[in-house]
Amino acid sequence: MSKLYIVPTPIGNLKDITLRALEVLKDVDLILAEDTRTSGKLLKHFEISTHMQSHHMHNEHKTVESIIQKIKSGTTVALISDAGTPAISDPGFLLSRACIENGIEVDCLPGATAFVPALVNSGLPNDKFVFEGFLPVKKGRQTRLLLLAEETRTMIFYESPHKLVKTLGHFCEYFGEDRQVSVSRELTKLFEETIRGTAKEVLEYYTNKPPKGEIVVIVGGKVK
Hints:
Keywords: Cytoplasm, Methyltransferase, rRNA processing, S-adenosyl-L-methionine, Transferase. By secondary structure, the protein is α/β, with parallel strands linked by helices. Helix content is about 35%, strand content about 20%. It folds into two domains: about 5-110, Cobalt-precorrin-4 Transmethylase, domain 1 (3-Layer(aba) Sandwich), CATH 3.40.1010.10; about 115-220, Tetrapyrrole methylase, C-terminal domain (Methyltransferase, Cobalt-precorrin-4 Transmethylase, Domain 2, 2-Layer Sandwich), CATH 3.30.950.10.
């Protein structure tokens, strides 16, 4: 029986890929990619010709079983996402869980993930933190924010550019305008930026300067 490799890919700067990641992607029989067009550019850059198959949030429920059977029959598989580590706010959890349930070895390589540099860059306490990923869009959002308003650990969120101002407004409303916030965007890329301040200050900044790119928001916990 073969195994499943979970392979992190760069979040922006292609130089951040590891030698081991390149080795695995060249040696496996099949690469599962969140978007084969995006991953195709990465593989072409590093002259990797391994066959790819689409594996994303819209089809993973239907394809997990067939992938399990492929691995059981001897196919070695690598899972990658568009950027960063698969299964962290990206497809991958269902497949890795199914592999474990079927006695298939899962080998997750260390590598890039956006929230780690964002957390370190924030200047907020990082000895204890909670990763929240994306907040609920509608249903459950208010309930989640009310619960998190009492959280004493540093909190980590992912957000899209067009929703950032709305989310920062909610942080002001539920956490208080003076809560410390750090927003990192376009990490490792040419226009990388980290803006730190109170929730109100950061909200005002991005209200006047609409953001672009991938965004990580770090929020200080409630002070006891």
